[in-house]
Specification:
The protein is mainly beta and 96 residues long. The chain is built from 1 helix and 6 strands.
């Protein structure tokens, strides 16, 4: 869980609170816009950025958008489905 501050308040925020379906650490997904990422047999095409919205603020009762600025995720489309597991390596389709 991450701790975020907004409006003088602190709140514990988990990835599930941010409505992330898939969390990938250590990769700047915004730099991969338009590319296909491969995770095991799964292929996802990174479509667009997804900046923080008002959903979390409504959930926590405080506007979190400024505290989360710059750490939003991306929207992606599944091009080839399959099973995912924690720890699977992620690569770009054209990374070889």
């Amino acid at each position: 869980m991450q701790r975020a501050a907004a409006g003088g308040r602190r709140a514990w925020v988990g990835a599930g609170d941010l409505r992330r379906n898939l969390v990938i650490a250590g990769l700047d997904l915004r730099a991969h816009r338009g590319r296909t990422l491969v995770i095991g047999a799964v292929h996802v095409v990174v479509r667009s950025t997804c900046p923080p919205c008002g959903y979390l603020g409504r959930r926590l009762g405080v506007d979190m958008r400024s505290a989360l600025r710059g750490i939003g995720g991306v929207r992606a489309a599944v091009a080839r489905g399959g099973r995912l597991a924690v720890g699977m390596p992620v690569s770009g389709l054209d990374d070889g």
